[in-house]
């Protein structure tokens, strides 16, 4: 054993995460997370939404939000020294670079200017003596040189004079990475979903570039939902679930399918008794090439068909666009494409028309879109129906004057309070005073009272307790069976979808990655969520 | 090719409209070419400096700085002291500028800090701040001068013993800069005076702006102007830089007002500064600038076109309808209207950009 080897094996790892835990207001989001990372190593960090990846990276990067919410437990070491950063700038000084999911490039700046933002090369001039360092002139030639050398480390060609606004998305991603590695001391790069916005060929080039960087000694934490990439690129994979490291594995000893099952975990199996054969039913809703511009939930190109009388599920990870579909069809966000309902095409961006055509929507934004918070339960239940269908109104003078029919409203409210077990003092109680679960029941009642042929329900059980959850889901099943109402449920909780739906479509990156019967194994849905259609299809076969 | 032409016409629609209006109004007014050239040269010399002072805040993403009125007030206070101490000629102007500078720095500092608390609403905030500061200015000029501040010249002080007269003749300062290096040439029968000194100063200012864009501070301002959050996360001191931008603008506006008034020759103590902001901003917008983008060429095109309308429209109105009043109404209407139109256009453009980015969401299949 040579001396060099001794030093190498004894030297502390580049990054050591040791028993890190974090609570947000008594809610444990990270617990006892530990792993290490050596120079030049690439670590894949995978997990579902809410598994704690972002929180872990926020801690590592010294984001102020961590300190504001009570700090964290455990220890982070860089090269054997404790690293407790109070701001991202400390983390940068310590050699950590972060490439965010959203681009932070300045649109009007060139590649060079963006790469060297706030780290420009400058030249002295006499005015510096009067006005200080910031009046130094920029040294364009040197800046171009530095930017080019950073780009060349990626072994990918970008013209350093291109303005960011005119670049394709892939080039923007490269520019961001070049910015991080242009710092001389960068030794650890955190990449949060760097390939999410890239096309397949762009992603391949990026993966190759990252490999080159690793060879040059830069360590990386690679966060991605695309498991194939993770297996392909990383030296080591850490799987997070519910804030814990459930598995640390080497790619050569595992495969995508196994990783997906670790991520999803063994959850309580739902009641998959719904296997109604609906082969011969007709379609009620045909959606083709729908796009929706909903902030944070962009739908790019979605096509699917819902059969009359079925419960259709829409699942997928947060931010992939599943919520945008219902909002787009109901006209709440700018949308385009073609939607045919009950044989007739419906205009988009016109909520009143859609409601008149016997479709109803229970929004995921219960308090914002769903309810008139300061009004009573009966008003809330009757409101949409009154506006759209003219019910709960008394007409006088041949319809010239219309008055509210309080009696009819009260009757309807009382009926639904009993039916849905809404816990309240009376139908006059204001919606804002109800618990989340009971508010959700009011939203459902509001939709039921319209008597729709098709009901969209988004995140029906978000933020409500278990008892209410069951009641809400059972109610959906009941109206479906008893009244033949077609229901489209959008939910982040796969198990919930599998429990109530006939078929489930999974949305990834604003596109449908697959439609499966609800009784397919959970792992397969997991793979679809990670955008691994091909493998999911292979497994199915 | 057609597309590029269309793009050019759209982005330069405002100056094109004004070129068209001037082309109609000039023959009707019956002014000679020599007269108009003289007027334009005079007005370019008089106003360009003021309009140029607006450029730096636009670069820093703070919109059109109505707060330049604060600088104009500082410039006037400088002039009052120069008159009071009977310093004439170029030294008088230099003295006025030197006195106005610390006042402008202070006012700019206050204005910048206020605007940092009103991010995204800089224009309306600076506009109202102008009104407020006008009150303070009136207190200083109408009450404190002669009472607390040592202003004694009977040429300035109201007969009651304190406060400055409404109209102050800038004796000894009038045209001090313009006449310093005057150049005359003949255009037809008309002798045109060209104030070379003033233009040299304006030229130096333009060079300063060009150079400033290439400094670290200028680069930081451009970064902040494009995306405040991104600049902040890169470690640029956003708020401090914004304050500096406003201070530079206010100080330059003070100098600009000194140049402006030495050309006019008399100072309306209580009114001269009020219209400065409005007219400068209108001129810049007519030159094709927007709230987020303005260049030096916008300044000169804008000043020329705006003042061409200014000169020509009263006479054109008189010739057409027999009333000079109409032209006067027209130019007031134009200066307010163009600002409103520029704001609406800006909002419309932003909407179009958002729609364009939305079009990118439809996926490849839609084409």
Give a written overview of the molecule.
The complex is a heterodimer of chains A (541) and B (367). Chain A is an alpha/beta fold and 541 residues long. Chain A folds into three domains: 11-95 and 185-266, Rossmann fold (3-Layer(aba) Sandwich); 105-184, no CATH class; 283-540, 3-Layer(aba) Sandwich (Rossmann fold). In chain A, strand 4 and strand 5 form a beta hairpin. In chain A, helix 15 crosses helix 16 (406-419) and helix 20 (522-529) packs antiparallel against helix 21. Chain A is elongated and about 85 Å long. The two termini of chain A are 52 Å apart. Residues 1-8 of chain A have low confidence and may be disordered. With 367 residues, chain B is mainly α. Chain B has one domain (11-349): ABC transporter involved in vitamin B12 uptake, BtuC (Orthogonal Bundle), CATH 1.10.3470. Chain B has helices at residues 2-11, 13-29, 33-52, 55-59, 68-84, 89-116, 122-144, 196-213, 216-226, 228-233, 238-264, 274-286, 296-321, 324-359, and strands at residues 167-169, 182-187, 190-195, 266-268. In chain B, strands 1-4 form a two-stranded antiparallel ribbon. In chain B, strands 2-3 form a two-stranded antiparallel ribbon. In chain B, helix 3 (33-52) crosses helix 13 (296-321). In chain B, 44% of the residues are buried. The chains are: A alpha/beta (541), B mainly alpha (367). Chain A binds chain B through residues 88-89, 104-109, 113, 117-118, 120, 122, 133-138, 140, 289, 291-293, 298-301, 334, 336-337, 510-511, and chain B through 211, 214-217, 219-220, 222-223, 226-227, 229-231, 233-236, 358, 361-366.
The most extensive interface, with participating residues per chain, is: A-B, 33 and 25 residues
**Proportion of residues in β-strands of chain A:** 15-25%
Mean pLDDT of chain A: 84
- The oligomerization state is heterodimer
Radius of gyration of chain A over all CA atoms, rounded: 27 Å
CATH fold-level name of chain B: ABC transporter involved in vitamin B12 uptake, BtuC
Kindly estimate the percentage of residues of chain B that lie in beta strands according to DSSP. under 5%
Class derived from helix and strand content of chain A: alpha/beta
- What are the secondary-structure elements of chain B, in order, as H or E? HHHHHHHEEEHHHHEHHH
Shape of chain A: elongated
Would you identify the regions of chain B where 5 or more consecutive residues have pLDDT less than 50? 363-367
Per CATH, the architecture of the largest domain in chain A is 3-Layer(aba) Sandwich
Using only C-alpha atoms, the radius of gyration of chain B works out to 22 Å
**Strands of chain B, total number:** 4
Lateral arrangement of strands in the main beta sheet of chain A: 6-9-10-3-11-12
Shape of chain B: globular
Residues in helix, % of chain B: over 70%
Q: Which bin fits the share of residues in helices of chain A?
A: 25-40%
What is the assigned CATH homologous superfamily of the largest domain in chain A? P-loop containing nucleotide triphosphate hydrolases
